[in-house]
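Bench notes, afternoon.
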Amino acid sequence: MAYFLQQIANAVPVAALYAVLAFGYSIAFAVTRRADIAYGALFAFAAQLFVLFAGYGWSQLWLVLPAALGFGALAALVYSLGAAVLVGRHVMRPLAFSSDNTVVVAALGVVLVLMETARLASDARSLWLPPLLATPVVFWNDAAFPVALTVLQLANTLAMLAMIALGAVFLARSRWGRRWRAVSQDRRAAELCGIDSASVYLSAYALAALFASLTGMLAVSYYGNMDFGAGLVFGVKVLFIAALGGAGNPLRSALGGAAIGLAETVWSAYGPFLWRDVVVIAALVLLLIIFRRERPVI
């Protein structure tokens, strides 16, 4: 029983991670209805730069650890958002309302460029952060098998849930959120009402990139490292996760992400770990085929 409860506890941070990634992805997807695997690359790119610059601040600038982490977070945020604005303005926006295939090819190119940029910047070294806030918080004080999470896991979970809550309020209450909803529901009708759909898409892409960047830094602060190929893996996975919940609806996408996080953790606990991603993605594809919506996207 304690082992099962520990796995449920372990699923909470993973579910929050997938939920906030799916929420951010759906913000950009809602206005274009085009699959974009570059979102996962921005997530991994921010995480890798966070580790790289934090290490540089620690070893070269002789900063204390909190200052080095702050320096790494600031640099990663500037570079990842700068890359997102550049990609959104000059690559994705011109192709956003064209065919699906052109966006997929362009997104794959962006993934490769970001992966190689991070790899070359770190000189192909696998850099690691030290364990942070690793003090366990015990929920079930069983002498044989205590159920616990670390302080960092709890802090990350709360931060990700707060990001979803603030994002949902911003989309529902702000003026920009009304324009975003108008473009996502009917782009041509919104343009007839004087809304610039291209600028809405660019700002939506930047907002989605902000979610991806912050989430990447939170994730790598716990895992300690982000593989150079993680961008492609997360890009494909988030695409299917968001689609499961309804990729045009951020909150429903977040719920789909949380469900997949729970399922993935349970499989890791009771099934062969090497088959986890294969099984999860295959299940997502099967569910999307079964529950597909025959609705044309204009």
